[in-house]
Hints:
CATH class of the largest domain: Alpha Beta
Bound molecules: 1-O-pyrophosphono-5-O-phosphono-alpha-D-ribofuranose
CATH superfamily of the largest domain: Periplasmic binding protein-like II
Amino acid sequence: MDRYLRIALAKGRIALQAMELFEGIGVDCSMLREETRKLIVRDPSSMVEFILVKPKDVAKYVEKGAVDMGVVGKDTLLEQQPDLYEVLDLGIGKCRMVVAGIDNAGDSLNRPVKVVATKYPVTAQNYFRGRRESIQVVMLDGSVELAPLVGLAHVIVDLVETGRTLEENGLVILDEICPISARLVVNKVSLKMENDRITQVLKALRRALRKAV
Length: 213
Ligand code: PRP
């Protein structure tokens, strides 16, 4: 075992919970918790190496084989549809992908062409295509909830966790597209080359998740 198993974590909400999961199976993540500007941190005792990257970039690193595994939200996977193996639902970062709009704007879902603001254009197109509805997408980078309030869009497709952002802005869920959570993903070549170690990690995580229920 002379090579580090390389894992990419999505920065932000998921990262802390993911670290707890890896610590639960004996990988020391203390160096990730430290205030550091290092982009690669290692735990020599378990021969695991972590990189912390923007959520949108995790799948890229995994797909191209720059890392062996990654932890990334299902929302990003649905949007990017990367060529990799999605092997485990980690049950963290749980939220829902929804269509939402202004409360009492009764006809906002019945327009011939709806304008939909979102960070998830592929997911939005797929959902409305499934309903045989044409949409025009306004791609935003954040604070999507603002769009219907200022007339930029009729509805939004976005993540809802607690529902607080919607509520405080007078928006309601019009339909639920799917539940979302963080997934463990694996590079296709790594699964062959590092099969024993990846299988070990997978089994340990599965056991830890079963215990946690
Ligand atoms: C996400 C999502 C919603 C909000 C939902 O945004 O896009 O805006 O969280 O959370 P809630 O239901 O608990 O209120 P994020 O905080 O990632 O920031 P962003 O708006 O800049 O994308």
